[in-house]
Design brief:
The chain is α/β, with parallel strands linked by helices. Helix content is 55%, strand content 9%. It comes from Streptomyces taklimakanensis.
Length: 319
């Protein structure tokens, strides 16, 4: 699980490994060729701002093109429900941004090598490649406002650091931008509170949204994340882990350790710890562990393979 803060911290350090002068020169050459210009890969500009990419053409389609335009990579799968929320949003923004970035979609089921090389922990996962340098942007479905913020920061860094400004997509120069769908003000306020670190305010705001819209997936995800961050705030990680290891029967120690596991990205460890706690407890302790596990499922996403596996394990110990 990655935090909702989708800042671009670290991008300059990653990109600095590339020779800025070389990337800038390539970008200038690409821009100078006008509407019929050649892309950074040496081939024609793409006819669409959205391309499907596989392992065979990744170097040409992504790495080489990234010298002339920021490339955003969307790791997705057909079975992934959050992917079905994020994917269309990214595609719409790619058309709206009109060539300022290129969206490359990678089906993880068909491209396991790329999935592993990028160290993807769960999907949807979004990375960028600028001047040949890869960097993570965010993981999981995210609201449009935050996605736009990340894209704007990416484009700004690409231009200021390397002079990479992208190019109009061939045949798309006159295409009108699709109107943006306004975000629910109450949901936007909840997101803003979470991003500002006001966890109490975020929890209240998300609960208010859910009171009116109980099925709002985005609000449920935001609430689960806010409550998780609220629980781990101020915890001494070393002490929590020692208490959990010293007394496996201490259910509350196991709950705290599982929260820290998830925040630290150790998803399977968090799930396994709670499944085992459910297995060896009864009554209120068992229910507390079961409920916490379901809450963590919300944070990761119901269609994540790790959640699917943990649900099966939970069912086996319960029944």
């Amino acid at each position: 699980m990655q935090p909702r803060n989708m800042s671009m911290s670290g991008v300059v350090d990653l990109a600095a490994v590339k020779a800025a002068g070389e990337a800038r020169q390539k970008a200038e050459e690409a821009r100078a060729k006008g509407a019929g210009r050649q892309g950074a890969a040496g081939g024609p500009a793409p006819s669409s701002p959205v391309i499907e990419v596989d392992e065979a053409d990744f170097e040409q389609a992504v790495l080489q093109r990234s010298a002339g335009v920021p490339v955003v990579i969307d790791f997705w799968a057909e079975w992934c429900e959050p992917c079905k929320q994020l994917g269309p949003l990214l595609e719409r923004l790619a058309r709206e941004y009109a060539g300022r970035f290129l969206l490359a979609k990678v089906d993880v089921d068909r491209n396991q090598l790329l999935f592993q090389q990028f160290g993807v922990q769960g999907i949807p996962a979004v990375f960028a490649v600028v001047a040949g340098q890869a960097l993570p942007l965010f993981q999981g479905a995210a609201p449009e406002q935050q996605v736009r913020q990340v894209l704007d920061q990416l484009i700004q860094v690409a231009e200021e650091r390397f002079g990479i400004v992208g190019a109009p997509v061939a045949g798309d120069e006159e295409a009108p931008a699709e109107p943006a769908v306004p975000e629910d003000p109450a949901l936007a306020a909840a997101h803003a509170a979470l991003d500002a670190g006001d966890l109490d305010g975020a929890v209240r705001a998300y609960r208010n949204v859910l009171a009116d819209k109980p099925a709002d997936t985005e609000a449920r995800l935001g609430l689960a994340q806010a409550e998780l961050l609220q629980r781990v705030q101020g915890l001494d990680a070393a002490r929590v882990r020692k208490e959990a290891a010293d007394d496996p029967a201490d259910v509350h120690a196991q709950l705290r350790a599982a929260d820290l596991d998830l925040v630290g990205g150790h998803v399977e460890d968090a799930f396994g710890r709670l499944v085992e706690t459910v297995r060896r407890t009864v009554g209120e302790d068992r229910e507390a562990a079961r409920v916490r596990l379901l809450e963590l499922f919300e944070v990761v996403g119901p269609d994540d393979p790790r959640v699917v596996a943990a649900r099966g394990a939970l069912a086996r110990v319960l029944f």
